[in-house]
Amino acid sequence: MLKIENLYVSYSGIEAVKGISLEVPDQSIVTLIGANGAGKSTTLRTISGLVKPKSGRITYNGEEITGMEPEKIVSRGITLVPEGRRVFPDLTVLENLKIGAYLRKEKNFDEDFRWIYDLFPRLKERSWQLAGTLSGGEQQMLAVGRALMSHPKLIMMDEPSLGLAPLVVKGIFDIIKEIHKRGVTILLIEQNANMALRTADFGYVLETGQITMSGPGSQLLQDESVKAAYLGKKPR
What we know:
Oligomer: single chain
Helix content: 25-40%
GO molecular function, one term: ATP binding
Protein name: ABC transporter ATP-binding protein
Radius of gyration: 17 Å
Largest sheet: 6 strands, mixed
Shape: globular
Number of strands: 10
Keywords: Amino-acid transport, ATP-binding, Nucleotide-binding, Transport
Structural class: alpha/beta
Distance between the termini: 38 Å
Family: Belongs to the ABC transporter superfamily.
InterPro entries: AAA+_ATPase, ABC_branched_ATPase_LivF/BraG, ABC_transporter-like_ATP-bd, ABC_transporter-like_CS, BCAA_Transport_ATP-bd_LivF, P-loop_NTPase
Strand content: 25-35%
């Protein structure tokens, strides 16, 4: 579905991403783990068209989308749930959800609302509440719901559990699995490497802009260097 080949991205002359290549197969969950500043968010922002790459190639279902404008990428079925949620605080929950469908030609949202409110009952309870007054977990639910309103085939999530309580984190990962069951492909960046690798079919480890390791999520969970660096476990 999504393929990145030899991607380089620079900010003010400093290389943030250094020649990475990766693939996200159709209807899979793929995770990208690494320390802060490794280039994970830059990678997602480049795929979504918010950042222009220095060089390299990004293709989606065989079509090159490298450097394409963000709205054209969304219209092709790729959407991003950004780090920090980025809801519109002065709009209601319902208005935020409708913004997610802005590029859709068909404007009958009843079925979408039913699905999203089924996934996130709290959003239904607060549909007329201003988004800025929601809790962090509720805002994350809203950010995911807003992304789903665009009818994505591939949804990219940037640190969905950041700053959330453990019980809320578990709920978010349950939702990720449920979205995947609906046939949506997921590319996940996550600080909670343990949860990410347990959820993902395949994982990549990104260090200082380069992929240093890859493999099935279950395999990376057992790797001693991954345990030491990202799972808080000392190597044997």
